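Weekly modeling sync, notes
Attendees: S.R. (lead), two postdocs, one rotation student

Agenda item 3: backlog of single-chain predictions. S.R. asked that every request posted to the team notebook include the full sequence so nobody has to chase files. The rotation student volunteered to paste the first one in as an example of the format we agreed on. Action items at the bottom.

Example entry:
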Amino acid sequence: MNHPTPDPQYLNVPFSRLYELQRDREDAVNEERSLTLRMKARLRRVASTTCPDHKPKCERCRKMAAQWFAGKGDEREVGAALELNAPLFVAQVPVHRWRLATEKEMVSIACGSPLAPFVWQTRGFGYLGLAQILAEAGDLSNYANPGKLWKRFGLAVFDGKAQRRSSDRDLAIEMGFSPRRRAVMWNIGDSLVKQGVKYRQLYLERKAYEQATSPGLRPIQYHRRAQRFMEKRLLRDLWSFWGRMGE
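Predicted structure, as returned to the notebook:
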């Protein structure tokens, strides 16, 4: 992977700008998802009118609607589905363009970051992922150690238990858990599990270790433990890389 040349206008952009872009991106993603779900719901309603065995949460209707949404099946049915959802498709276009423009600016800012070399050395980890981490964490030199960064992203451990939400007000303040920041890191970790090389290997090794030392758990628990471990290692490596760049 070739390292792109940073655009001078995106050098030394304040972290507050990345934070604003990250919020815009989340709004765009949520709006796109909402419109997509509405379109699929409309198609399921149409499918239910012709389904002989229709019932609540009908699997046949769901599959038929998914097929129409993907443009597959009878040409007349697909055409009718497109016509039905035309207003929502039209509404989705500017939102989609907004998201792409926002992501493009985030990537451009990440390209000018001191951590840019880390990206093109790490398969499965992209400039958008780096931009999201910097948007949520800010200047990594503000964190005294990787543990502080883990806490920022909901990956710390309190009294032997994973950082989480709490109904206890004082404990919740101490934990400082943010589901939104945790979701950002989870999505990055999920990408590394599927496409990474170094970090996917780390995930597989940790999963094997968990299976050997904690028998009896469900497969999803081994997966989550291993991915969590890998995400923490990524943040640690980013923090260390940032520190070396400043030396």
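Discussion: group reviewed the output briefly. The chain has a mean pLDDT of 92.
Action items: rotation student to repeat for the remaining queue; S.R. to check formatting next week.
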